[in-house]
Amino acid sequence: xxxxxxxxxxxxxxxxxxxRVTLPTEMAIAVTDHAGETILAKERRGCxxxxxxxxxxxxxxxxxxxxxxxxxxGRMEHKWGEVQxxxxxxxxxTRTVKLAxxxxxxxxxxxxxxxxxxxxxxxMLIGAVICVEIWNPQAWLEILRxxxxxxxxxxxxxxx
Length: 160
Prior knowledge:
By secondary structure, the chain is of the alpha+beta class. The chain has helices at residues 25-31, 53-72, 80-93, 111-115, 137-147, 151-159; strands at 10-14, 20-22, 37-44, 47-52, 94-98, 104-106, 122-127, 132-135.
């Protein structure tokens, strides 16, 4: 993420009959490259995230490089189950997508089920500083109720 990018905001949108959602312009600009491509990731039940492709790829490449080094050094032999689990999650977690007209996202199969919304239902688009999250409204309300009481201490911890 570039230092000047700091994605915030909240918007309610409706998923259309073809499973498309339009991101607010400022959010779409923040997560799209010059070709209109972005990364769509499964975050948690009822939540997808949208990332700037180069930022996502750098994070992924850096992490995979460390894991490969540990495997080559023989430091992961006692963790093969976790390595396989990570591999499965990496295989299904993300997908490169292109935003139509620079702001309309088609949510692909496999991601629709994870988000748990049907056509013509609302979703919440949330600026999460380094990415944009797409939330099932019920899941968003649950996480908001859980996290909001910790806002002050979290802000203070990160700002110090």
